[in-house]
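Researcher: Please translate sequence to structure tokens.
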Amino acid sequence: MEDIDVIRKLALNGDADAQYSLGRLYYGGKNASGDQEDAKVWYELAAEQGDAYKQYYIGMHNRGPGVPKDDEEAAKWWRLAAEQGHADSQYGLGMMYMEGCGVEKDPDEAEKWLRLAAAHGNGDAEKELRERLIL
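Model: Translation complete:
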């Protein structure tokens, strides 16, 4: 049995790490089809289990190359991860509120998420707050 067969079996049995790994294999085309939609399915299954990093990653996938951009879907996943304290998701969500991408533009909500991200050590959030003179 090849490694991908083992990963697929674990993924089909609900293992979030295997689902994420299978999504990565599909996304990269290594030992899998290279199909972005298949990758998204596996990423979402993994993210639905509540792991903040996997939620962050599906948010990134929804804004990444090779897939239709879906800012609303990215914001949904980043919010779930951000609420768990995931700094990169807090930063991403803050910038979405700052720019009005996938969410209604809201400078106060943007500042809230950027401050949380900065407090969790996200340097980009710190820089953004300094540049906007709200630190």
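Researcher: Any highlights?
Model: The helical segments are 3-12, 16-28, 36-47, 52-61, 71-82, 87-99, 107-119, 123-131.
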